[in-house]
Amino acid sequence: MDTLSVKEVLHHHQLRVTSGRCDVIRLFVTSNYALSARDLENQLPQYDRVTLYRTLHTFIEKEILHLIPHDGGLAYFGLSEGIRQSLTDKQFETKTHHSEHIHFTCTACGRTECLPDHLVPEVTLPENYQTNEVALLVKGQCPQCQ
Amino acid sequence: MDTLSVKEVLHHHQLRVTSGRCDVIRLFVTSNYALSARDLENQLPQYDRVTLYRTLHTFIEKEILHLIPHDGGLAYFGLSEGIRQSLTDKQFETKTHHSEHIHFTCTACGRTECLPDHLVPEVTLPENYQTNEVALLVKGQCPQCQ
DNA sequence: GCTCTAATGCAACTTGTTTACGTAATTACT
DNA sequence: AGTAATTACGTAAACAAGTTGCATTAGAGC
Fold first, then answer.
1. Rounded to an integer, what distance in angstroms lies between the CA atom of residue A72 and that of residue B75?
2. Inter-chain CB proximity B140 and A121 less than 8 Å
3. What is the pTM of this model?
């Protein structure tokens, strides 16, 4: 991971480069798990809660992060695969394969992760229902918790 | 729908029959959509918020209702299919087919509904991941909103 | 009807998230 | 580099969803 690249990501999305935004992206890149606003508050206490919330919103809008559906309490966020690839491969990907991946929540350790290699299967809907997005969340036990 | 049946449902689950619980079940039976705690507050203002929350929890525990995952703010609840069948067919179903159904949220009208005839397809996970539950939420436009 | 136990209502609280507004920092342009 | 325009930030306060404690009320079984 490389600071220049993080700045480039922000620049590519017409966002001003601030230390807060860089730190948030870096945190997502180094994290193997989805993060909540609370996680950001804990791990980046130098920034105000409001700033972190705003940063999350901005990143969702720009599709740097995606919101992960879940069935209670607080919102979780994951780094978009394209961005992760841009930062780790040190070049921007043009493909945005955009069939969504599965999310997994471990009921033991509580952690949520993206499974970028496991895509949501094709879904059939009743007549006249139009699909914009699909989200598939699996709950169970992760390898570490068995 | 039939009041006696509603009482029977409660009785079968070792729950005391109270007017609040009956009204909540009736509301779910007559609603074509998933309901949030806020919806209950609006439609059953004669009961205290706390009571409604507690009723929802109780019904989730007893699997009279199920929690519908979504990606923001507030929790939505749907009537379990078995219960709906018991109340409309006037007899208790023994089959609990328990492969979960898909949920649909319309981005136009904001309503969420259960699609009991559309089940979540089989999901493959990475090695050593164990599945307990799956939830699939589709966002798009419903027939009425096109 | 009486007793036991569970459900309710009220008040207050916690947590997650948002809004308003003044200040500070970044970017683009000399 | 210096300046203006604009965007982001921090603080405080508000708001909303959901929870907890406790006293009161109401079902269920006898």
1. 6
2. no
3. 0.89
